[in-house]
Amino acid sequence: MKMKNLISILLLVFVVSSGVLIIIGRDFGGERGKEGSRVGEEEYGEGELDPSSPGEGHRVVAWYFHTTKRCPTCVKIETYTRESIEGNFADLLESGFLELRVINVEEPENEHFIEDYGLTTKSVIISDFIDGEQVAWKNLDKVWEYTGDRRVFVDYIRDETALYLAELLEK
């Protein structure tokens, strides 16, 4: 039964990814970090990109919000989130439709995210932007629950992201 579920999920991810790329119909390009990969705090570092502005067109952003001081579990949340997004949605990241952004909310230019998303702790948020304006978002609030099991965490991020993208296609 587990193999059937895995195959179903992989097919869903493939179909959603393909559908989104077909709908997009062009490469959104955008700015890229080192070696052509998207995101990561290290690529934003010195303000190369405005982390609060996803750019033109239709884009989805997976955010990991953290503070300056991070415990091992907080670092694990970033690592697992990055593994899931980069491992399962590489084609959407490459097209620029999906972005992964790691943001320190204690930096003055990022403090607004605390109020924008009602953040009370380190969080993973998926948000939908059209021409730079956010139109919807979802807090993946079970990340703290699943940090003890890498596979469950990675699957949770994958499944929630795929579901979010599938819901966009239905609109």
What would you say this structure looks like, in words?
By secondary structure, the chain is α+β, with helices and mostly antiparallel strands. The chain has a single domain, classed as 3-Layer(aba) Sandwich (Glutaredoxin). The chain is 45% helix and 18% strand. Strands 2-1-3-4 form a 4-stranded mixed sheet. Strand 3 (123-130) and strand 4 (133-139) form a beta hairpin. The longest helix has 23 residues, at 2-24.
Instruction: Return the average pLDDT rounded to an integer.
Output: 78
Architecture (CATH level 2) name: 3-Layer(aba) Sandwich
In the predicted model, the low-confidence regions spanning at least 5 consecutive residues are 18-51
Major β-sheet annotation: 4 strands, mixed
Shape: globular
Give the C-alpha Rg: 15 Å
Please name the fourth-level CATH homologous superfamily: Glutaredoxin
Given the helix and strand composition, which structural class is it? alpha+beta
What's the number of helices? 6
Number of strands: 4
Strand and helix map with partners:
Layout (H helix, E strand, L loop, with lengths): L1 H23 L16 H4 L13 E9 L5 H17 L1 H6 L2 E7 L7 H6 L5 E8 L2 E7 L10 H21 L1
Parallel strand pairs: 1-2
Antiparallel strand pairs: 1-3, 3-4
